[in-house]
């Protein structure tokens, strides 16, 4: 598993939300954002700078703008100089408030990103933090494919040459959605793992003997998905007669740990003549039923116990 470094800039925030740029050149928008949180600088405006987290995006809302109007020029210059330091990514003013003239002057002198949004302050904070949470989430790359099967994100893993892409193609033909082939970028967002394809591989599928195919062009735009929560890992293994494979399903449950989150896993042996697409569909359906409390293996076990009790 290969870790993937996040590379988020202020310009990404501006482009996504279409913020108005009050001050700041194109170069200033290259400032990095490294913390998925915001700062409402009440204490900083009051002149208390200890323990301030300067690497957060600063939000100026109703309260901050109202308080700034009560500050004298000297206090404003001291506070504004602090919150426009070299490690602070940007300042966003909510609700289309007018920018304090002294803040605009200092931002211009420093070439500091000063932005404005029409959103209410609480909505702006929620939207920005949600965006940063996703973009700055811990991310790792894994070898395998990812599809949405009956609405469940299913990662198909296994050694090269196991036929993962061919199985994915069959599943796509059966109406399921491709998310990624060959490599899956996994991000931990809160306690969930979300998978997506690297940009260069998006919508592409490699079939040995054919080459690269564009799934969305071949099967339509509705055959692909940008991202999905990973709910189940299906690990493909070459069939070996000496291996002890699950036959009933009452054995200990298996899990795959991705970025500290345990994902349920099943191991499927690959053998000539087995329709792996149908088997994976059945495994996903059975997994969904077990999540709903309908466990076929436990039901069978109970039938066996009842039979034994009845005949003893």
UniProtKB/TrEMBL annotation:
It comes from the Bacteria. ATP binds at residues 158-165. The keyword Kinase applies. The active site is at residues 143, 164, 182, 247. Signal peptide: none annotated. Residues 134-303 form the HPr kinase/phosphorylase C-terminal domain. The keyword Lyase does not apply. Transmembrane segments: none annotated. GO terms for biological process: regulation of carbohydrate metabolic process. Both phosphorylation and phosphorolysis are carried out by the same active site and suggest a common mechanism for both reactions. Catalyzes the ATP- as well as the pyrophosphate-dependent phosphorylation of a specific serine residue in HPr, a phosphocarrier protein of the phosphoenolpyruvate-dependent sugar phosphotransferase system (PTS). HprK/P also catalyzes the pyrophosphate-producing, inorganic phosphate-dependent dephosphorylation (phosphorolysis) of seryl-phosphorylated HPr (P-Ser-HPr). Homohexamer. Belongs to the HPrK/P family. This is HPr kinase/phosphorylase. The lineage of its organism: Bacteria, Bacillati, Bacillota, Erysipelotrichia, Erysipelotrichales.
